[in-house]
Design a protein that fits this description.
The structure is a homodimer of 407-residue chains. Chain A has twelve helices and 16 strands. With 407 residues, chain A is α+β, with helices and mostly antiparallel strands. In chain A, strands 1, 2, 3, 4, 5, 6, 14, 15 and 16 form a nine-stranded mixed beta sheet that branches. In chain A, strands 7, 9, 10, 12 and 13 form a five-stranded antiparallel beta sheet that branches. In chain A, helix 3 links the parallel strand 3 and strand 4.
Chain lengths: 407, 407
């Protein structure tokens, strides 16, 4: 592949939704998302690929094969978090494009078609659930329901797709792939710590998101004796502390995060009337994840009782751990070895479109190192040589799959 | 006094900035504040009082006395918190007006003039510091500096005063009172618990507001191992818990509150990069308040060190405890007794304009019960008979002061 072209396109794409501090804010289905999509679609058009847009706005570009067999598919997403970097998601889409462009320019036409997908709303920041586009693509959610999902302002996915011109008419799924492989930045420190260039991803950790609302009694901070208070900020603080302690107790790859916490009315001299917070739990083992959820719930209920708070818990996302296809993982390792890149096996702690695709075809992912393990941040960085290495491993893996008549 | 007229005016005033749930949002120098001021000024005009507006927007209406001596002053403020009730502040202004109207209608003209003040920005929600109008009135802050104070959107006090038409030209102070007495709802549960109708307020607790910013490392909640995290949400939670524990340890009338807490970027799947929170500490004893501040600072520094966070602490408000004039407190008690109302002495945990006025003349306050001790909330309520009792005690107290040639 042409590593320079890939890096230049990543930089060009990062201008869509660029923020002053160097970060990118390209929330799903915003004007910035449209700008990013338009840029990528223009590059796809230059290669004269067969393009489709489906009802949830997934864009799929297909390089025809020598025969009309089910394609090998790759891809990722173009949306970002509110202050993200330029690699998360974008790399997977643009590396797929780079693989196809490399083949086109080399005059190589594989047996099977190659499909490059850009899935809608992977991050789940603006609309829940995350991985919405790939979920619908795989039949995990009805299109009608997906189009009705609303952001915090009450705007629906359907209306925003119309508005930005990406509510397409292609059938769902627009293609039925024989295999799926996604290149992505690791977003964690494991590859860097192990000194490996390529991660062969064996699966994705299960994810549990819980929204908790604690309701107490808003009151004057200067006149309400401590003993008469029902202060949801104290309850929320207890939960934040518990989530960390629980994660350290469970150990292994278990993760627990309170990323969002809102007090109301959120004023210096008012005991808050309510607190709203989210708990993100992740574990590669289904039983351990379920146990963590039960302990969290018990703790929240006990704490609400002690502090005289009303509490409401809602599971807003629940994804079981996903195991990727063994043979596909082997193939990624072999591709890395054939290119003399060091490879390590690891589990993804983050959710990815690939875990949806794993429902319908043999799937795996390729990781490249994230500097300092940093992601979802303007400081997100992957070295250009690692980007190139990842795209080359993707090319080898796709080519190997695309030349197989039978799996 | 006419209790019905007082209650009707409180209800009419509450329509300025009325919120759907029954609360009032009349933040200082907003359109709602203008509407409330205009209403009160119209009532003052009906009584043909001598009105002045000074450079910080304090409105003072004066009923002339038989002689041109320094006036007895009363009053409070018309601004509210973001979701407040209809009594906090408004009662003190409208009861002062009611006292004057009662005297005018009865044809009583006291020896000394009576001044009724409405002070600007007492709550300190929109502009810091709180009690800004009375602070400037008492010479505690230069007018120029006060006019440059900015709200969260960067708008200055001066520009907003211009905009709503309350940047007056009266000298500061517009009057030099011989005494000041403010009627206010207690905003706490003490009078209700003691079964008393009138509170004779002996002083105001010292107040300390600290803004704390904790900066860690924003990162992906699914890929960042627990041990590598620098999570400011955990630090903030530790502070919330500590502030409560400290208050319970210190005991007595000490209060500690974290009312405001903001995480950034505040997203479910991102380890926060920073947390900003406020700590409100109150104590009637200066030494105890200072000790609480020192312990808070030491705890925050230790916690930041342990969690690898950068921390920045800023004292944004610091008011020493204020002791009111003994003779004035006695007079309030005598006035209550002469009207056969039960009275109790207590210290105010909340800040009030009266504590500023105490710098320049003998001062005290009269409290009436708050149902359930609730304030700064739409549920704030004081029974009509308590409103009337408070206004009658205010009338007796003012009359007694206004007939004294010498203090």
């Amino acid at each position: 592949v042409d590593g320079r072209r890939l890096s230049e396109r990543l930089a060009a794409l990062a201008r869509a939704g660029a923020r002053p501090g160097g970060g990118v804010c390209r929330l799903a289905l915003t004007d910035a998302d449209r700008e990013g999509r338009d840029r990528v679609v223009a590059w796809m058009r230059e290669l004269d690929l067969r393009m489709t847009v489906d009802g949830i706005g997934n864009v799929v570009a297909v390089l025809p094969g020598r025969e009309d067999l089910p394609p090998v598919m790759t891809g990722s997403h173009l949306d970002t978090v509110a202050d993200g970097g330029r690699y998360d998601g974008s790399l997977g889409v643009l590396a797929g494009l780079e693989v196809v462009e490399t083949l086109v320019r080399a005059g190589v036409r594989p047996l099977r078609p190659i499909a490059v997908a850009s899935f809608t709303n992977e991050e789940g920041v603006r609309f829940t659930p995350d991985m919405l586009g790939s979920l619908v693509f795989c039949g995990g959610m009805d299109l009608e329901q997906a189009l009705e999902q609303r952001d915090a302002a009450g705007t629906t996915v359907g209306d925003e797709l119309e508005r930005i011109g990406y509510r397409g008419s292609a059938p769902i799924p627009s293609v039925r792939p024989c295999a799926f492989v996604e290149l992505h930045v690791e977003q964690g420190p494991v590859l860097e710590q192990r000194g490996a260039t390529i991660g062969a991803v064996t699966g994705v950790a299960g994810i549990s998101w819980t929204e908790i609302e604690l309701v107490g009694q808003a009151n004057h901070a200067g006149t309400t004796p401590m003993c008469g208070r029902r202060d949801p900020a104290c309850g929320a603080a207890g939960i934040v502390t518990f989530v960390r302690r629980l994660a350290l107790e469970i150990g292994g790859s278990h993760l627990g995060t309170v990323g969002r916490l809102v007090l109301r009315p959120n004023l210096v001299n008012v005991v808050p009337g309510s607190a709203e917070l989210t708990v993100d739990l992740r574990n590669g083992d289904e039983a351990a994840l379920g146990e963590a959820e039960r302990r969290l719930e018990a703790h929240v209920e006990e704490l609400a009782r002690t502090d005289g708070l009303r509490c409401d818990m809602r599971r807003v996302v629940r994804l079981q751990p996903v195991a990727f296809d063994e043979e596909m993982v082997d193939l990624v390792e072999q591709s890395a070895e054939s290119l003399a890149h060091s490879a390590a096996r690891l589990t993804s702690g983050a959710g990815h479109d690939a875990q949806m695709m794993a429902r319908v075809c043999p799937t795996t992912m390729i990781f490249v190192p994230s500097r300092g393990g940093v992601s979802h941040s303007p400081e997100e960085h992957t070295a250009p040589e690692h980007l190139q290495a990842g795209a080359n491993v993707l090319l080898r893996t796709i080519l190997a799959l695309a030349e197989r008549r039978h799996r």
